[in-house]
């Protein structure tokens, strides 16, 4: 069935994003991997909305909300990263210990 | 839109291979600007994915918001912070990476073995039975608009407040 293949793709994208989110050393790359995870969630929501709920389309509405929250998260995250880069001259994750001292 | 079977299969296979290769490119490419463009390719492929599953409004919103706003913002941030640290950013394979790849592949295979075991046809039958058979003269976009202005009115207003607060927060954090 075609719908399970789409779910397999979503699972692959989710695990790739999770691996990148844990192992990346660059903050911008970690934000990109977070976008991958949110997009795999969106694929699941749209697919289930088409299969199970084709009359009311509530999965589409939830995916629109997720897209809006992801846009806000990307703006806030990149502002924090640029602020850290201005103070530390680096965007490495393991060197951002501004709250440490 | 209801495509015939082989065309739909070829489309899903092609888009899926591009999507997985692009996702691996986001993680594994050493230069962040290449991984940002690879992320753009992945987002375009996902928005093309939504079109065969009758979700035209979400496809257009994905293309506008993700590719047009978020990806451009990420590319600007990568170019703005492109220092000398990226050039010697060699990729060391540490033991933490091995443990993480093991955990992620175990999550992947457990989910892949879970998906065919679930009885999707039973769920489809139970949800189809109690749906009100109504004439769908209105399109999907009109249906989304009706839901956003009646059922989901409070989350819609809350999301606008969240966007306003994040806009002000991003400006005050970036300009000092």
Automatic annotation (TrEMBL), chain A:
Its EC number is 7.1.1.-. Pfam families: Oxidored_q2. It is a multi-pass membrane protein. GO terms for cellular component: NADH dehydrogenase complex; plasma membrane; plastid. Its main location: membrane. It catalyses: a quinone + NADH + 5 H(+)(in) = a quinol + NAD(+) + 4 H(+)(out). It is found in: Cell membrane; Membrane. GO terms for molecular function: NADH dehydrogenase (quinone) (non-electrogenic) activity; quinone binding. It is an enzyme of class 7 (translocase). One of its GO terms (biological process) is ATP synthesis coupled electron transport. The chain crosses the membrane at residues 6-23, 30-49, 61-84. NDH-1 is composed of 14 different subunits. Subunits NuoA, H, J, K, L, M, N constitute the membrane sector of the complex. NDH-1 shuttles electrons from NADH, via FMN and iron-sulfur (Fe-S) centers, to quinones in the respiratory chain. The immediate electron acceptor for the enzyme in this species is believed to be ubiquinone. Couples the redox reaction to proton translocation (for every two electrons transferred, four hydrogen ions are translocated across the cytoplasmic membrane), and thus conserves the redox energy in a proton gradient. This is NADH-quinone oxidoreductase subunit K. It comes from Ensete ventricosum (Abyssinian banana).
From TrEMBL, chain B:
Its EC number is 7.1.1.-. It is an enzyme of class 7 (translocase). InterPro entries: NAD(P)H-Q_Oxidoreduct_6, NADH_UbQ/plastoQ_OxRdtase_su6, Nuo/plastoQ_OxRdtase_6_NuoJ. Keywords: Chloroplast, Membrane, NAD, NADP, Plastid, Plastoquinone, Quinone, Thylakoid, Translocase, Transmembrane, Transmembrane helix, Transport. Signal peptide: none annotated. It is a multi-pass membrane protein. It catalyses: a plastoquinone + NADH + (n+1) H(+)(in) = a plastoquinol + NAD(+) + n H(+)(out); a plastoquinone + NADPH + (n+1) H(+)(in) = a plastoquinol + NADP(+) + n H(+)(out). Pfam families: Oxidored_q3 (PF00499). NDH shuttles electrons from NAD(P)H:plastoquinone, via FMN and iron-sulfur (Fe-S) centers, to quinones in the photosynthetic chain and possibly in a chloroplast respiratory chain. The immediate electron acceptor for the enzyme in this species is believed to be plastoquinone. Couples the redox reaction to proton translocation, and thus conserves the redox energy in a proton gradient. NDH is composed of at least 16 different subunits, 5 of which are encoded in the nucleus. PANTHER family: NAD(P)H-QUINONE OXIDOREDUCTASE SUBUNIT 6, CHLOROPLASTIC. This is NAD(P)H-quinone oxidoreductase subunit 6, chloroplastic. It comes from Ensete livingstonianum.
